[in-house]
Amino acid sequence: QVQLVESGGGLVHPGGSLRLTCAASGSIGSFYAMGWYRQAPGKERELVARITSEGNTNYVDSVKGRFTISRDNAKNTVYLQMNNLGREDTAVYYCNHKRFSPFPADYWGQGTQVTVSS
Questions:
Q1: What does the alpha-carbon distance between residue 29 and residue 27 come to, in Å, rounded to a whole number?
Q2: Burial of 65 (0-12, 13-18, 19+ CB in 10 A)
Q3: CA angle 104, 105, 107 (to 5 degrees)
Q4: Which of 12, 22, 50, 86 is the most buried if burial means most Cβ atoms within 10 Å?
């Protein structure tokens, strides 16, 4: 099992910044990806950014240049720095841990609300 604890959501004005944190504990595995998905009202959940155990990252096009995902391996923690936020970034953000090896499995955090509004 893997437990994910998220923090850092909130209300921010357009153009502002937030940093999301996701701390993982348990059997995170030797080969995995950790990242953030988001789901806005009436829309499907989408991948925002993720980072693999090898350090490879990928982002959805709409956040490239504004969001940065990083990790602290010693703490099993992933961060999502979100800059220049726009109203279109309003959503519930979910941390995800995808373990590829050993024993593939998928884990989700409880979600944290990010609201961008003036």
A1: 5
A2: exposed
A3: 155
A4: 22
Round to whole Å and give the CA distance between 72 and 106: 20
Radius of gyration in angstroms for the set of CA atoms belonging to the chain, rounded to a whole number: 14
- Measured from the Cβ of residue 74, the count of other Cβ atoms closer than 10 Å reads 6
Length of the chain: 118
Tokens of 23: 């701390």
Expressed in angstroms, the distance from the first to the final Cα of the chain is 40
Place of tokens 């504990």: 25
Whether cis (ω within 30° of 0) applies to the bond prior to 104 is: no
User: Across residues 13-35, what is the average pLDDT?
Assistant: 92
pLDDT given at position 103? 87
pLDDT score at 12: 97
Q: Which two tokens stand for residue 76?
A: 């099993």
Specify whether the CB–CB gap between 50 and 69 falls below 8 A: yes
